[in-house]
Amino acid sequence: MTRNRRILIRELPKGNLTTECFTTDEVDVTDPGPGQLLVRTLLLSQDAANRAWMQGATYRDAIEAGQVMASGGIGEVVASKSDAFSPGDIVWGDTGWQEYAVLEARGVQKLKSHKPLSHLISLLGVAGKTAYHGLINVPGIHAGETLLVSAAAGSVGSIVGQIGRIKGARVIGIAGGEAKCRWVVDELGFDACLDYKDTGTPLPKQLGAACPEGVDVYFDNTGGDILQAALFAMRQRGRVACCGAVSMYDGKPRPGPYGVPGLLVVKRLKMEGFIVMDYAHLDADAEHDLSMWAADGHLKVVEDILDGLEQAPAGLVGLLAGENRGKRMIRVAPDPN
Amino acid sequence: MTRNRRILIRELPKGNLTTECFTTDEVDVTDPGPGQLLVRTLLLSQDAANRAWMQGATYRDAIEAGQVMASGGIGEVVASKSDAFSPGDIVWGDTGWQEYAVLEARGVQKLKSHKPLSHLISLLGVAGKTAYHGLINVPGIHAGETLLVSAAAGSVGSIVGQIGRIKGARVIGIAGGEAKCRWVVDELGFDACLDYKDTGTPLPKQLGAACPEGVDVYFDNTGGDILQAALFAMRQRGRVACCGAVSMYDGKPRPGPYGVPGLLVVKRLKMEGFIVMDYAHLDADAEHDLSMWAADGHLKVVEDILDGLEQAPAGLVGLLAGENRGKRMIRVAPDPN
């Protein structure tokens, strides 16, 4: 009998997420029922949204104690009770933090093979598509505009800023720590990157110096104080894409920024929330453009892969603390092809 | 020599606005200089925005102590040093709280005569146009949608809700006090009106009962706790028009609602701020439709006119406390025509 190592939620976090919130067990692999697949996990995507799911129902059901920790991942079909899938197929699904998952075939997506497989999570996965749709199809970006991006070294922000540069915008990042900011400029080609952890110069002052004529488009991955500073730095008729609120997922609910709704009125701002699947009908555009830009060398694919399922808890805790650069993943098993 | 009674700002409010913030004096009327007009004030518009101007520069300069209190108003040109205006012309301008104002002609707008003159401030003035553009040209409204309007008995809200009904939407108002809510339903024809002052049933619970399938469009005149409750009641892909934040003008700055930006992401909401003059190019549409609806009896024009310049301070304090129904104005002098 094949055994399945799993990481479960021992207890939902009351404050910040810690590795103590998780526990590991091992059970027998079960057979898929009618319409189900048995999938062997290869790569897990780590996302700030994983933490948000612990706060309650969002666009998916809430996660609860005792369950396998939820996570999107790439796997290989081992056994299929669905006509639509065969053993050996590479698929994307909600595998969770475990070596084997029994999944409903209707919730699973077949992937074209790709080398490396990890690009299907980074460049061509949720990260790349979120960056692409969230910039191109929500606020849009035009040559000569000033684009501000928070979590600029993160999986989405690192791509958003590079797309902004490709489109001719002036791109200012926000990240935590001097070394990370330098990397965003030197490695990703942003025009500048502001350090929100800089104790000498508060972010609003840095924003004033870096964007003296204000920000046309702000791509918000953080919410909280950074969103507040950005709202005050917006130009008249600026556009804000609300992608995520990583500063607010971990810990207690907090009120929104000062200036909501006052600044929206005075500056005639538009704020819009989106989720990547809203633009699934335009995924072909995203895949086409992202692949082309990466092949041309205009867009660097930055991945941060940790090896071994057991890295998942510390990997997610570290992601929430901002330790990753680019798309963080957990390699559970090597690409079989 | 003609004398000019004026109401000045004695001291800017530190907390809530009171009538003690104002003082009255009387000075000689001065002659207009080149390019200027001498205007006799007839009707003053009272707006929550007057209070917001005291908080600092917005889309207009901040108001300061020692100045005549700023206010838009309708006046009659008494003397003109501009080729564009003649004595007897009826004009709209920033007359302030005084019987006579010397105004730069380029900042003044000539009005077509209208009976009653007050309609040029209510139905066809900033109130009516703000309601029209802010609903029709910002979020838009479609038959069968649920429209929620705060400050529903106010100058703008009372018109927004009536336009929503004309367009076939289900219209829910929010107002303070049972009598006012009853008036919004009985007199203005809203489908329902929720009392945010009801101590028995908190607003979020009332919203859940009145809008079980959620709100498609929320027209926000208040900001603060009411905006927060509305955000939680929005449907997926709901639209929020940010018109004003009357709950936040008076007193200290306060943070924005919980759920910004998180709810915007999860529900894919769009929030957009606007100011009536952004849509000046569409004013002809507004004037045409509003006049037609009023003439047809589909739209009731509700005015709340106080007589005498000396009523202005108490009138504005009362407006901020929500005592008005419909468009509050101060009649300084009778219509000369």
Task: Give a description of the structure.
2 copies of one chain form a homodimer. Chain A has helices at 48-52, 126-137, 157-166, 178-186, 203-210, 224-233, 246-249, 262-267, 283-296, 312-320; strands spanning 3-9, 22-28, 36-45, 73-80, 90-93, 100-104, 109-110, 146-149, 170-175, 192-195, 215-220, 234-242, 270-273, 303-307, 327-331. With 337 residues, chain A is α/β, with parallel strands linked by helices. The first copy, chain A, has 2 domains: 3-122 and 302-331, Medium-chain alcohol dehydrogenases, catalytic domain (Quinone Oxidoreductase, Chain A, domain 1), CATH 3.90.180.10; 126-278, Rossmann fold (3-Layer(aba) Sandwich), CATH 3.40.50. In chain A, helix 2 (126-137) packs across helix 3 and helix 5 runs parallel beside helix 6. Chains A and B meet through helix 8 and strand 13 of A and helix 8 and strand 13 of B. Strand 13 of chain A pairs antiparallel with strand 13 (270-273) of chain B, so a sheet runs across the interface.
**Count of DSSP helices of chain A?**
10
According to CATH, what is the class of the largest domain in chain A? Alpha Beta
> Ranges of chain A with pLDDT <50 over ≥5 residues?
none
Shape of chain A: globular
Mean pLDDT level of chain A: 95
Within CATH, the superfamily of the largest domain in chain A carries the name NAD(P)-binding Rossmann-like Domain
